[in-house]
C-alpha cells in the first residue's frame, strides 16, 4: 500500500514537472536549432541577464506583481468574507440572480471586461494608476472569493457563536476567536487563489495600467515578443514559482480540514 502511494505521488510529481523541462532546457541553452532534441550548447546567459543585466527591472516587476496581487487578495477577502457569510447563512431573496451576476466577470472574457471599464476608469482618473489596476483585478478576484466563502458558510454552524455570546464574548471576540478559526481553511484558499489570479493577469493590467505599471507578466510578454527564447524561458520559470508555492499552500490547507466549516 505504501509503495503504491509512493508511485502515485511520483507519477503526479512527474506529470507536473515534465511540462517545465523544455523551459528549463531553453533557459540554459546558448544554441538550440531544429531538429535537435537537445540544445547544441549550454550556458548561463539567460540567468545572467535576469540576475545581473536586467536584475533591477525583473526585481521591480516581481515587486509590482506581488504588491498588486497582495492588495487585491486582501480587498477580495474584505468583500468576500461578509458577502459569503450573508449568502451562506441567511435567506436572501434573489440568490440565483446574484449568483449569475457574480459569475459574469468569470464568464465574460477578461479582455471585454477591461475594455468596457477602461473608458470609465479614464473619466474617473483611475487609468494608468496602481488603484485602477487593483480595481480591475478585483472584478475577477472578488467573485471567486465570494463564491468560495459562500460555499464555506453553507456548511457553517452559527450556534457556536451563540454559545460564545452567552458566555459574555463581544462581537469582535466572537468574530476573531470563533468564526475565523472555524472558516480559516476557506479563507486561506480564497486569499491564495485571489493572489494567484491577480498575479497572472496580463491583458487587464496592460489595458488599465497603460504600460506604466510594469508587472512580471508585462515584462514576460515583452521578452517573448523580442524572440529571445532563453531569457523568456528563464523569466517564465521565475513567474511560476509563486504559483507553485500558492498551490502547495492551498493543497496543504485543504488536506488538513477541507473547505467546510464546523457543524
Layout of strands and helices, then pairs:
Elements: H1 2-17, H2 21-27, E1 29-31, E2 41-42, H3 45-53, H4 55-89, H5 95-107, H6 110-123, H7 130-154, H8 159-166, H9 171-199, H10 203-209, H11 216-226, H12 229-257
Antiparallel strand pairs: 1-2
Helix pairs in contact: 2-12, 3-12, 4-7, 4-9, 4-11, 5-7, 6-7, 6-10, 7-9, 7-10, 8-9, 9-12, 11-12
As a percent range, the share of helical residues equals: over 70%
Number of strands: 2
What is the count of helical runs?
12
> Averaged pLDDT, please?
84
Low-confidence stretches: none
- Taking all Cα atoms into account, the compactness measure Rg is 22 Å
Strand percent estimate: under 5%
List keywords for this structure.
263 residues; mainly alpha; 12 helices
Summarize the structure in words:
77% of the residues lie in helices and 2% in strands. The chain contains 12 helices and 2 strands; from the N terminus they run ααββαααααααααα. The chain has a two-stranded antiparallel ribbon. Helix 6 packs across helix 7 and helix 7 crosses helix 9. The chain starts with a helix and ends in a 6-residue tail after the last helix.
Structure, briefly:
With 263 residues, the chain is mostly helical. Helices cover 77% and strands 2% of the residues.
Amino acid at each position: 500500500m505504501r509503495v503504491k502511494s509512493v508511485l502515485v505521488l511520483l507519477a503526479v510529481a512527474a506529470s507536473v514537472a515534465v511540462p517545465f523541462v523544455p523551459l528549463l532546457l531553453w533557459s540554459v541553452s546558448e544554441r538550440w536549432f531544429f531538429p535537435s532534441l537537445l540544445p547544441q550548447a549550454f550556458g548561463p546567459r539567460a540567468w545572467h541577464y535576469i540576475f545581473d543585466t536586467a536584475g533591477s527591472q525583473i526585481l521591480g516587476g516581481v515587486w509590482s506583481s506581488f504588491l498588486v496581487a497582495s492588495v487585491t487578495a486582501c480587498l477580495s477577502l474584505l468583500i468576500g468574507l461578509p458577502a459569503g457569510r450573508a449568502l451562506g447563512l441567511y435567506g436572501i431573496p434573489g440568490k440565483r440572480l446574484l449568483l449569475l451576476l457574480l459569475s459574469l466577470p468569470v464568464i465574460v472574457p477578461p479582455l471585454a471586461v477591461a475594455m468596457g471599464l477602461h473608458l470609465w476608469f479614464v473619466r474617473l482618473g483611475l487609468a494608468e494608476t496602481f488603484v485602477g489596476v487593483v480595481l480591475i483585478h478585483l472584478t475577477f478576484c472578488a467573485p471567486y472569493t465570494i463564491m468560495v466563502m459562500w460555499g464555506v458558510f453553507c456548511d457553517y454552524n452559527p450556534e457556536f457563536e451563540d454559545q460564545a455570546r452567552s458566555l459574555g464574548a463581544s462581537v469582535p471576540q466572537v468574530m476573531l476567536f470563533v468564526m475565523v478559526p472555524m472558516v480559516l481553511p476557506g479563507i486561506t484558499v480564497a486569499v491564495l487563489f485571489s493572489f494567484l489570479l491577480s498575479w497572472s493577469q496580463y491583458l487587464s493590467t496592460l489595458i488599465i495600467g497603460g504600460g506604466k505599471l510594469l508587472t512580471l507578466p508585462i515584462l514576460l510578454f515583452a521578452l517573448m515578443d523580442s524572440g529571445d527564447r532563453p531569457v523568456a524561458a528563464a523569466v517564465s520559470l521565475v513567474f511560476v514559482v509563486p504559483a507553485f508555492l500558492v498551490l502547495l499552500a492551498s493543497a496543504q490547507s485543504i488536506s488538513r480540514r477541507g473547505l467546510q466549516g464546523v457543524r
